[in-house]
Amino acid sequence: MKFLKRHLAVFLSWCLVLGTTRVGFADQTDQPAPPPVQAAQQTPEQLQQLVAPIALYPDALVAQILAASTYPAEIVEADRWMQEHSNLKGDNLAKEVDKQPWDPSVKALTEFPSVLANMDKNLSWTSSLGDAYFNQQQDVMNAVQVMRQRAQRAGNLSSTSQEKLVTQGQTIIIEPAEPEFVYVPEYDPWLVYGAPIAVWPGWYPYPGLFLGGPGIAFGIGFGIGFFSGYGWGWHHWGSDWDHRTVIYNHNTYISRSRSFVNHNNFHGNRNFNRGGGSHGGGVARNPSFHGGPQHGFVAPQRGFEAPHAQPGSRSGAFSGFNHGGMAGGFSARGRSSFGGGFHGGGGFHGGGGFHGGGGRR
């Protein structure tokens, strides 16, 4: 009898343990999965601060910068390459640039070495700009127009002998006044728009692009003739303001960068690889095209102190996963600003001849 009671007690104990365990597992199983964290988009004010340093540039240059900003690692590589090959000039430089594996937008910026160097020096800003453009393309383009309108109201944006303004409704188009030469305006991006704008943390005012005071000045012109025969040159870029998109080769530019997270696919695919950005920068000919999942940007090893990240933003050159891409596609149509046809000749700043002149207004 004692033997039976002992075994019965053991049996009942195991039943109790088993029942409790099953209830515990059931409680865990029945718990709803936490909702995915939705990445906050940047506000119009934050985007206006981001585009302030470039909003007054000619349309095609703005297009190149926005596209290239989605490849921050290549920006660094290209600027270092330019420094190491400073002996190359004119067509010899263009030929060697054409051989590089960079995105067409990055290659295009070698026509404007000071612009490329500025993006390298202010890498945190460049990364955040690429992040924003990758995910909020139309919002970024809207911000460019808002800042142009502000500069115009402040009396700091008008047609000159260096650049031509065309106003169509609420859209302000900026084009070179001379087809052979492009002038990059020099201005203080935090003062030129009227009411002061908060300075981007850690911003470095690059010589030749920054002008103290509220006005705008122009230095030398960048000749684009040596680069006109290449598929990534000046005349292949523009802006479709009707659809708020960057245009490359008469089609909507689609970044293939892996430097940023595509928020549309972030929660649906966990197979991420950190590291440099592979590209193949593209054009969208199919409106149903959607870019695949992108990846987090890891800043290359560099010999300088990391810039400060923008307070309240989700990105920066050293923040790991950043904002990712908006991939849509339509052909260029409607109101647009485009580089135009090919032009021969012309000089190149730092590469065989340039166009002087300019002045402040």
Low-confidence parts lasting 5 or more residues at pLDDT below 50? 23-29, 266-278, 283-358
Q: What is the count of DSSP helices, taking H or I runs of 4+ residues? A: 9
Strand elements, count: 10
- State the strand order across the main sheet: 8-7-6-5-9
Describe the biggest sheet? 5 strands, antiparallel
Structural class: alpha+beta
Helix content: 25-40%
- What's the overall average pLDDT, rounded? 75
Strand content range: 5-15%
Radius of gyration: 26 Å
Q: Give the SSE order as H and E letters.
A: HHHHHHHHHEEEEEEEEEE
N- to C-terminal distance = 109 Å
* Mass-distribution shape: globular
What does this 3D model show about the protein?
This protein is an alpha+beta fold. Helix content is 32%, strand content 13%. The protein contains nine helices and ten strands. The protein has a five-stranded antiparallel sheet. A three-stranded antiparallel sheet has the order 3-4-10, with no helix packed on it. A two-stranded antiparallel sheet has the order 1-2. The longest helix is centred in the N-terminal third of the chain and has 29 residues. About 27% of the residues have low confidence.
Keywords:
5-stranded antiparallel beta sheet; 3-stranded antiparallel beta sheet; alpha+beta; 361 residues; globular
